[in-house]
Amino acid sequence: MRAEGAIGRDKLPSGAISGENPSAAKQTPVEPGQRACGPTHLPTYELTTHDLPPGYQFEAWRNNFAPMLEFDEPDDMTVGFGGKQVTWDLGCLAFSRIETDALGFVSLPGHTRRDPLDHWTLTTLLYGCVNTIAPARTFEGSAGVVQVHSLARPFEGNITNSEMLMLFVPRDFCTEVTSALNAAEFSNLSTGMGRLFTDYMIGLAKRLPVIDEAELPALVAATRAMILACASPSADRIEEAREPIASVLIERAHRIIQARLFDPKFGAESLRRELGVSRSRLYRLFEPFGGVMHYIQHRRLLDAHSALSDPTDQRRIIEIAEQHCFNDGTEFSRAFRREFGCSPTDVRSGQKVDLPYKPAADLKAYAPEERFGVLLRRLHG
């Protein structure tokens, strides 16, 4: 049963954590523990225990994690053990999506040292709970909270049936990151910035299956900036991470707006409070979209267009307008025509209408590297 407080699976592509690759139909089957071949340009490794006989499943899972952890052996090895892991090699970092049955664990420094790994792990659970006992503290992690562990220190604990995202950061990755994670190890990043890092991790899980290797330097730089801004925030570090933070905030705002689409009381101030940002920050985020309220209305009109286009939706136009927070039918029709170049009645009747046309933007005033973005924002409406 799914644990209370689980992160919604709609944040990830279908099969993202269930061990399915969204591009699996185009890929060559991968042997457990072997490098995957497919359309993604990043080196990817996959392991699943479900293809093995039940009596061998736990042993395969334990061997997979042997360089960093020792697992407590189940009472009955014959009943099988479910575990799936997909790992991307990011050069100087690694990122995993993991699904595991419940188990106990102990770090190798506190047990039997096999390999000189001293990485940090930054983990966010999508569902489940983990309890960690370290020499100086005990802490629990739950869905949506980033936990920081150090593989160079002794610790032990247990985890319930869980799904998680895990970022591996080597100790020599960056001096500033070393300092920040040293201060944060064996703790939860439960602040507002820490929750932003959870969203950033979920964004990575979405992007990595399709990212090109040429994008890796920028991705690693953004990840470094996000670690510093979230683990040890300061004005300078938050400014350095401005672009990835903005991307995370926009994605979170999109989800909030979609969830509150039919709430007539929802507006810019409600969105600002839920995002936890200042008014000026909110307006800067939505400036490329023509402003906060313009974007909210745009999403409502898109949803109304979808309802009007659906032949099974027999509601009156004014009912659809009211559902989408337009109390006046004339106001709804005017806004609808401005957005789509046709009336709600045209869409409801299914008659052929001209495609909406917008005058070409004058891009000469923009730098060459800015023009494409300006064009796409104009198309957005």
TrEMBL record:
Boundaries of every HTH araC/xylS-type domain copy: 251-350
Q: Where in the sequence does UniProt note compositional bias of the Basic and acidic residues kind?
A: 1-12
Q: Does the keyword Nucleotide-binding apply?
A: no
Q: Which Pfam families match?
A: HTH_18
InterPro entries membership: AraC_XylS_family_regulators, Homeodomain-like_sf, HTH_AraC
Where is region (Disordered) located? 1-44
| Superkingdom of source | Bacteria
What are the alphabetically sorted keywords of the record?
Answer: DNA-binding, Transcription, Transcription regulation
Q: Which PANTHER family match?
A: ARAC SUBFAMILY, HTH-TYPE TRANSCRIPTIONAL ACTIVATOR RHAS-RELATED
The protein, known as: AraC-like DNA-binding protein
